[in-house]
């Protein structure tokens, strides 16, 4: 069993260290972890944010534990050399098209949500975000308009096979939960979304037990704070899913709590190959200060064990230890507490 550990930039290494410590404490027989460079740190060392050796180590693993990429020093590089291209490149090169982002309020943290406790307490949803298409991967560039203005453009598109495969993931996810699926789009304005909606309706025929509704993304953003408890599975595209999941994190309490799994269709001897990362970025504003909340990365490690290594009992142990740590009031600054990154990691270890 192999895990590739890609810590990346900013708080990436700080939060990844705690998650690796938790995995090590489980002493899983035959498990190997291999570090590789990614993001700005890889660019500075090798001239590329996703060096070929890193991609090879990632491909050869059963699952990838990813920290975060992004470095203000690299913000003026040509786009293909920027750290963020590493995570986009991994998702695309490894055909990891299904991004699962669960959001659930932890017992005892209802009062730490940006929402009223009674509203927050009902949150138990999963965002199923398409990860290989949309405006993130369309043709992009700069051009000169007829009046001489400089213009930037990014093409948004989805093909029906791209929508179909992510819709199946979302319907299957809903079948394992409360069987309610809300597909979020902007079909009142965008043709990309009209096709999305048409295909989701077609796929729904195969899942008659799932109650399907469609919602425009602007309304979905509003409903996510008005009545988040009404959502079970939210299916959406790359851009809308990116935005709605950061919003969902504050409904739960902090972006430092939300984990994610990015999956494709490749099965290994142990489970489904995937990449696991917190939903947050490299947080340059707090990097190097020991202030980052490592829970999202620790919970991502639990998802890796469950989905890619077939170790559900070990994943449960990690999730229970995280829940106990939070219930015991060991909270970082993001949740109004004073615990630092290593203190939180150590507290999880003590409760494993
Ligand atoms: N998957 C990835 O690697 C991602 C990378 N990025 C990159 O990260 C860099 C920073 O982007 P931002 O928009 O600032 O988003 P961000 O998620 O890094 O930070 C947003 C805010 O949340 C706070 N925050 C994030 N994670 C936290 C944690 N674990 N504990 C406590 N507070 C936390 C930060 O301090 C900051 O105030 C950029 O270069 C961006 O492109 C952004 C999102 C995802
Ligand atoms: C850095 C972006 C490419 C990714 C992002 O914000 C995300 O996946 O949440
Ligand atoms: Mg994001």
TrEMBL record:
Stored PROSITE patterns: IDH_IMDH (PS00470)
Binding-site list for Mg(2+): 218, 242, 246
Localization of this protein: Cytoplasm
Cofactor: Mg(2+); Mn(2+)
EC number: 1.1.1.85
GO molecular function, one term: 3-isopropylmalate dehydrogenase activity
Residue span(s) of domain Isopropylmalate dehydrogenase-like: 2-348
Cofactor note: Binds 1 Mg(2+) or Mn(2+) ion per subunit.
CC annotations in GO: cytosol
Pathway: Amino-acid biosynthesis; L-leucine biosynthesis; L-leucine from 3-methyl-2-oxobutanoate: step 3/4
Reactions that this protein is recorded to catalyse: (2R,3S)-3-isopropylmalate + NAD(+) = 4-methyl-2-oxopentanoate + CO2 + NADH
Residues that, per the record, bind substrate: 91, 101, 129, 218
InterPro entries for the chain: IsoCit/isopropylmalate_DH_CS (IPR019818), IsoPropMal-DH-like_dom (IPR024084), Isopropylmalate_DH (IPR004429)
GO biological process, one term: L-leucine biosynthetic process
Binding residue positions for NAD(+): 281-293
Keywords linked to the UniProt accession: Amino-acid biosynthesis, Branched-chain amino acid biosynthesis, Cytoplasm, Leucine biosynthesis, Magnesium, Manganese, Metal-binding, NAD, Oxidoreductase
Record site: Important for catalysis: 136, 186
Main location: cytoplasm
PANTHER family: 3-ISOPROPYLMALATE DEHYDROGENASE
Family: Belongs to the isocitrate and isopropylmalate dehydrogenases family. LeuB type 1 subfamily.
Functional summary from the UniProt entry: Catalyzes the oxidation of 3-carboxy-2-hydroxy-4-methylpentanoate (3-isopropylmalate) to 3-carboxy-4-methyl-2-oxopentanoate. The product decarboxylates to 4-methyl-2 oxopentanoate.
Subunit text: Homodimer.
NCBIfam families per the UniProt record, alphabetical: leuB
Name of protein: 3-isopropylmalate dehydrogenase
Natural source organism: Novosphingobium hassiacum
Encoding gene per record: leuB
């Amino acid at each position: 069993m192999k895990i590739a550990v890609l810590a990346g930039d900013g708080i990436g290494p700080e939060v990844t260290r705690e998650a690796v410590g938790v995995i090590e404490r489980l002493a899983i027989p035959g498990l190997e972890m291999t570090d590789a460079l990614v993001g700005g740190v890889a660019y500075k060392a090798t001239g590329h944010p996703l060096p070929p050796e890193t991609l090879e180590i990632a491909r050869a693993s059963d699952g990838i534990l990813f920290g975060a990429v992004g470095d203000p020093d690299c913000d003026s590089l040509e786009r293909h050399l920027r750290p963020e291209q590493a995570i986009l490149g991994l998702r695309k090169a490894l055909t990891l098209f299904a991004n699962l982002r669960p959001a659930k309020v932890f017992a005892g943290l209802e009062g730490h949500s940006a929402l009223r406790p009674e509203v927050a307490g009902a949150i138990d949803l999963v965002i199923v975000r398409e990860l290989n298409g949309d405006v993130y991967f369309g043709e992009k560039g700069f051009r000169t308009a007829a009046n001489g203005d400089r213009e930037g453009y990014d093409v948004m598109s989805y093909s029906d096979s791209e929508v179909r495969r992510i819709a199946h993931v979302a319907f299957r996810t809903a079948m394992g939960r409360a069987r309610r699926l809300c597909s979020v789009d902007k079909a009142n304005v965008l043709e990309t979304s009209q096709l999305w909606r048409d295909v989701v309706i077609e796929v729904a025929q195969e899942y008659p037990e799932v109650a399907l509704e469609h919602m425009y993304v602007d309304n979905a953003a509003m409903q996510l704070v008005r009545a988040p408890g009404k959502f079970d599975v939210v299916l959406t595209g790359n851009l809308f899913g990116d935005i709605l999941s950061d919003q969902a994190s504050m409904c739960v309490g902090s972006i430092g709590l939300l984990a994610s799994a990015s999956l494709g269709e490749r099965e290994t001897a142990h489970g489904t190959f995937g990449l696991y990362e917190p939903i947050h970025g490299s947080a340059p504003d707090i990097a190097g200060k020991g202030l980052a909340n490592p829970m999202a990365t620790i919970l991502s490690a639990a998802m890796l064990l469950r989905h890619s290594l077939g170790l559900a009992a070990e994943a449960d142990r990690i999730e229970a230890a995280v829940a106990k740590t939070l219930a015991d009031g060991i909270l970082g600054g993001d949740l109004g507490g004073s615990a630092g990154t290593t203190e939180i990691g150590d507290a999880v270890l003590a409760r494993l």
